[in-house]
Amino acid sequence: MLIFIVAIYIILSFKCETEAKKGGYFPKDIPYGFGSSAYQFEGAWNEDGRGPSIWDTFTHKIPSPIKNNDSADVACDFYHRYKEDIKLAADLGAKLYRFSISWSRVLPSGYAYNLNEKGIQYYKNLVTEILKYNMSPVATLYHWDLPQGLYDNGIDWTNPDIIPHFVNYSRIVIQNLPKVQFWLTINEPKQICHWGYGVGYMPPNVKSDGVLEYKCTYVVLKAHAAVYRMYKSEFPHYEGKMSLTLDCNWMEPLTKNFEDVDAASRRQQFECGLYYHPIVRGDWPYIVKYRIYLRSKNANLPESRLPEFSLREIADIRGTYDFLGVNHYLTYLVKDEKEAPFTNISYANDVRIDSSYDIEGNKQDKEVSMLVPFGIKNVLNWITKEYGNIPILITEIGTSDNGTMFNDVHRIDFVTDYLCTVLEAINDGVNVTGITFWSLTDNFEWIVGYSQCYGFYQIDFKNPFLPRMPRRSVSFIKNYLQTGMLKCNESRIMWPNRIKLPTLEEINLYG
Ligand code: NOJ
Fold this sequence. Notes:
- This protein is 42% helix and 13% strand.
- By secondary structure, it is an alpha/beta fold.
- The longest helix is centred in the middle third of the chain and has 24 residues, at 258-281.
- The protein is globular and about 60 Å long.
């Protein structure tokens, strides 16, 4: 009998060992969940006292700048149906639920003197509902929906005057939601600054490439730090942890040549280091500072286009995180580029790279992004190598399609491959403390409206009842969340990205 037990033990340990090498078992203490944001999910855009945000103004333009003239006025109707969706997440085995607070639902004009009781009550109810299922609330204070009232008075992310307003708003929210376990001050600041104030793709559609976008980055970082400091000094008894979350893509050198390797590392610093470095170390990454200074000086500008942090600011910003938030979707192949004339001012010329190569290494006429499983592993390892073994919350991974597909094998493959490489990063020593998938249901995907769908559950936005219909990936994710076991694919492929963003000409920004 003893021999029999020992034999079984040896067989099982061998099996576990080989499975683990293939990445089949995940640490049991990592919580998973789903992510959402107010503007993309809630709808009820003018109900119960909510004020307009810059996204309402943008989507209501005529002609519409949004694909298929879509709007988020109703979106998933999460404002009325949050109980149903929270239950769906809980039934799948989620332990985290991520949402954002609409600033103008709580403070309709953005100013703290005008509190909308119904707005704050809604978020209290939402947190209560999440806690009812023993899930941890993950709350984002700002997911791109600046109150129009503030913007109309010149208070936006390029004006430091926004900082006390953001602090006042955050204080009210935090005071009212004491049980939130993870706070994210700002979601994807790069999108706010580069797309909102650089390229002008997103509201408020300011085109000040390589100039105002850096001012925005500076103000956003100061605003994040001010909220973090306020939280730690005014709410020392709260247990929730706080950080910001970045879209940190992976930059893979096109060749092993020194120039391309250096170019990839430079772009990594311009994209992720631009925000992580100040909050961890207190100042801009050296290469970013150097490149923008160099190009500004050679263009005879009186000072660098990148605002300089004072010693006081460095001290304020350094250390304003309890963990690092990461949204990860894409990988780019990066090749070095020759220096553009110094008077051609743009973020791209500051970075000085060429990312227009496809998976086969063929040059295309515009930037090419790819879905590459090892990208997330490399990003996680890069963060850990740059900044030390800081806890990392993966606040978004996910993939999209055109919404019609129920047999979404690509989503199952995507999630499997990305998770399996996350596991390899964990085995490398990266401290991953949680993952929220984007997203539980289809939702409003910004300028492309409802044409890009990220949901495990499909929503037919033409159907007034907005039914939530499970795709094939629902039973896959349920099984994974409930067992923590995953069979990794033998080979993990790279895919071309399905998302083709419209060009600036295609969207009607200034109509
Ligand atoms: C990042 C953003 O935070 C989210 O709002 C968006 O829908 C997803 N990425 C997918 O593009």
